[in-house]
Amino acid sequence: MKRQTLQAWxxxxxxxxxxxxxxxxxxxxxxxxxxxxxxxxTAARSWAGLANYGALASSADYWASLxxxxxxxxxxxxxxxxxxxxxxxxxxxxxxxKGFFRTIFLLPVAISSAxxxxxxxxxxxxxxxxxNYLLSLLGVAGPNWLGDPTHALAAVAIxxxxxxxxxxxxxxxxxxxxxxxEIQEAATMDGATAWQxxxxxxxxxxSPTLFFVMVVSVINSLxxxxxxxxxxxxxxxxxxxxMVYGLYLEAFVNFRTGYASAQAVLLFLLxxxxxxxxxxxxxxxVHYG
Length: 289
Fold this sequence. Notes:
By secondary structure, the chain is an all-alpha fold. It contains 12 helices and 2 strands. 25% of the residues are buried. The mean pLDDT is 88.
């Protein structure tokens, strides 16, 4: 038994070393820096205690970035999960071209966030973009999607949903394929309609996959950076400055390392709370086995 345990630890050691170097150590370092003021030129550190956290609590910009993050998360997670679930159910029931459509929907996941964002920069262009051109064919004057504070966050959310759609579809398809066909056939023989089969049979059995996709989608949305940086740069007028982008600005533009580290710690706590709430709410609604 001891030899097997040693072998297991040896097999896990590369992953554990990588986790310690690239995740655990940076996390502790961020917490340590959040309690200090760091000189941007000499990197000298002076003890600040909770002063950085107090500055965040009294910062209107920080609270605005928190609200923007929550709105952005809601605007990406809910449509993204619902649309991907509908597409996955349609693909699962379709007898034709399943492999082709799976590839088509998975393509956005395969490209980088930078490339996806640049594609949407062209689509959203107010004068030569395809979106405003299509709207003009309907007699609608398209707005300046990325330059108007009213539309910028929605525009970034749409691009984010498109980018992550294939990821969700793959997991939903895997969950649907794991549901035994005999259960569906039994429900049909009992007189259940298509909607009743979906709501009473498919959804309970798919709930673990749905829960996983929801948790991962919330975490990814709260950490979104690349598309915001390329599409809007946090603007216009801070309309798309989320917590992550505000952290980036403080750390690498304003060089306030301690202040940015405090933001990173609070973002970590927010993600932990959001995940814990989802686990709590899902206890009675997720069915395993």
